[in-house]
Specification:
single chain; alpha/beta; globular; binds manganese (II) ion
């Protein structure tokens, strides 16, 4: 963890300026009929989960360039996640990936308690083969043509539920790499039938208070077809499985220019929005940092979420899912968590009754201007004040760099060789 004295010294240097900015923004928002403290309270209560794999350096199909002081195991990963939460106060939960993060539940619980973290959704892995694995997933897992391979994939998911139940998780996220590289390689109908048959066995093992979050992906690792390729197929699957199954929206898993906020609105209406994997993209599943390329799209997604607040059963899970190839993963995750918070705060500023009135009057210009007003407002003083009041850093990246955390852990954690392709 970062020493409290380092954070305090950093905050002391900019606290007066922050209070000035916060007061000025408070006056501005008051003129718009908005109570800045109410927005700050909502921002402070907001959290986005960190994926355990996000604190490692990512890579591409071509190479992985290892970073300094990368975590060696789940306990190192939790230490890094603890620092992100300590400085941002925006990331209270960590999402584990099995088998990468396998460890005794008592040790995981003790470490999380020490760092003030809890565990979010469990993630199963049937997109690669493990050393001790009997049957290969080269040609698929949950939808594999071979019943024994499907059974093995189901068994693995049941184990993830069991591990999760022992550490307080309440959801299983299932993403499979199943699909084809050639037209005709598989029967597109029968592969979905096989997926549904196997997924229903996983669904049947869910504890009553758990959710199954189903993630679709348009392409990669299969490049001609994937068995769960878009939100329509995902919705069909979630509906056939039952009420505990919901759709997960990974912002990078769509065709370019797809209207993601509209998918979100549709899933909300059907009670099937399970949650998000936040990231950003320019061309495909780029796994770029959240809000780094299209912050307005992120805002428009949050506009739908804020509009849906209070709906019965509306409780989407929020997680970052991105690959850090050229930055310190801790810095990227901190900035990304703040970008998600920023989009949320900006969406909270939209005057919903004015927006509805403009929509109903067919006043397209005023409707879109009302949205933009929220997006154009610089809410940084709200985010920074929420962090400061919770013991975090006004400027998390500056505090992190001042603390020298990366150099400290680099001295203890040897560099991991970067020979093969990276996992994104
Ligand atoms: Mn994802």
């Amino acid at each position: 963890m970062i020493k409290a004295s380092v954070i305090a010294a950093q905050n002391a240097a900019s606290e007066t300026a922050l209070r000035d900015d916060y007061d000025a923004l408070g006056h501005h928002l008051a003129r718009r009929g908005i109570d800045i403290n109410a927005i700050k309270a909502k921002v402070a209560a907001y959290g986005v989960a960190i994926p355990s794999w996000g604190v490692g350096t990512g890579g591409t199909r071509f190479a992985r360039f290892p970073g300094e002081g990368e975590p060696r195991n789940i306990f190192d990963k939790l230490d890094d996640c603890g620092v992100i939460q300590q400085l941002t106060r925006a990331t209270p939960a960590v999402s584990l990936h099995i088998p990468w993060d396998k460890a005794p539940a008592a040790d995981l619980n003790a470490k999380a308690a020490e760092l003030g973290l809890r565990f979010d959704a469990m993630n199963s892995n049937t997109f690669q083969d493990q050393a001790d694995q009997k049957l290969s997933y080269k040609y698929g897992s949950v939808s594999h043509a071979d019943a024994a391979t499907r059974a093995q994939a189901v068994e693995h998911n049941l184990e993830c539920i069991e591990i999760g139940a022992a550490i307080g998780s309440k959801a299983l996220t299932v993403w499979v790499g199943d699909g084809t590289n050639f037209p005709g390689q598989q029967d597109l109908g029968r592969s979905l039938d096989r997926y549904l048959e196997a997924a229903s066995k996983i669904y049947g093992a869910l504890p009553d208070d758990w959710r199954m979050l189903l993630e679709h992906k348009m392409f990669e690792p299969a490049f001609y077809s994937t068995v769960v390729q878009d939100w329509g197929t995902n919705y069909i699957i979630a509906t056939e499985l039952g009420p505990q199954a919901q759709c997960l929206v990974d912002l990078g898993h769509h065709a370019p220019n797809v209207n993601i906020e509209m998918i979100v609105a549709r899933l909300i209406r059907q009670g099937k929005l399970g949650g998000f994997h936040f990231n950003d993209s320019k061309y495909g599943d780029d796994d770029l940092d959240t809000g780094s390329v299209e912050p307005y799209r992120l805002f428009l997604v949050f506009n739908e979420l804020v509009a849906a607040e209070g709906r019965e059963g509306f409780n989407p899970a929020h997680m970052l899912d991105q690959s850090h190839n050229v930055t310190d993963p801790i810095e990227s995750l901190m900035v990304s968590a703040m970008e998600v918070q920023r989009a949320y705060a900006q969406a909270l500023l939209v005057n919903r009754s004015a927006l509805t009135a403009a929509q109903d009057a067919n006043d397209a210009l005023m409707a879109t201007t009302e949205l933009k007003r929220g997006f154009r407002t610089d809410v940084e003083p709200i985010l920074a004040m929420a962090r400061l009041e919770q013991g975090g850093a006004i400027d998390p990246v500056a505090a992190y760099r001042a603390a020298g955390y990366r150099a400290q852990v680099a001295a203890q954690r040897p560099k991991v060789s970067g020979g093969g392709g990276g996992i994104v």
